[in-house]
Amino acid sequence: MATLADVARRAGVSPATASRIISGSTKLVTDELRARVLRAVDELQYVPNAHAQLLARAQRTAVGVIVHDVSDPYFAEITRGLQQVATQHGRLVIICNSYRDPARELEYVELLRAQQVAAIVLAGSGYHDAAFTKALKGKLAAYTRTGGRVSVIGRHELPGDAVMPANEEGGYLAGVELFGGGHRKVGVIAGPRVLTTTTDRLAGLRRAAREFGRTLPARRIAYAGFDRDGGAEATAALLDSSPDLTAIVALNDSMAVGALTTLRERDIAVPGGISLIGFDDMPIARDVTPPLTTVRLPLTEMGARAMSLALDTDGDAARIEPAPATLIRRASSQPLTS
Q1: Per-residue pLDDT tens for 31-42?
Q2: CA distances from 58 to 48, 49, 203 (A)
């Protein structure tokens, strides 16, 4: 395989000159030199090292995105929006899955900094972990001092621009739908305790409960992973401990799908026996039976806005853009009739 040095020797120029011409540098060279180098590239079938070119360019062309798991429908929709904007700006997107492992997130920030990406987007939830947050702040500060930009999605105690989904308001809307419809015994399938997303959605449900003179006791909250299996297991635990529930709120739609499975296995009709509400309005929410009542967040738009903020170099002050929540009524919930 031909090397840059081989091309330079064939063209009769220095390796530095050959590199500038091949990489499309704006530094002026004569047409005759350019033609010799490009002819040598053709003759030797030289393939430039993309990684080396990336590091050599003054304009950083790649952006890094850290998500919890891109196979999760929530993050798949956000990533779609991120990539749409990145493509419009001619940027390569490097996607890193942390699988909700804080140590891995720290490693990815360090790796992306070493790759000299133009921006880093943290698309996952924030953590209730002071030591991790302090370490992450330090790594991001070192990155931004080199000219990198940072944006986040969700509630984080971090520097940079942010897109803030209305998680607390969404939880409130779900609570109003159920408590306002006469339900008193409502169970909650919550995500991991360490995530700010879980805390904020629960806070909205509790606000609605207070407003209607209801309670949301700890025994009616089951914490689990933000996925289908977690939802199925948490639903079983709730039904075993509180068999008189009339409604369940799942704090994301994947968990709600798992809840539907458990309810069907136990011959509990939805919504006749138990009303069920999800969260996020993922594409699958309208396709399950019955279609899910859920809280919609503009997931693709959130990703697009986060990438736009990351690539917009105007201004030094951190910007916060809200992403509203909307209740979408479908067939999985109804007011309590007795």
Answers
A1: 888 889 888 888
A2: 17, 16, 46
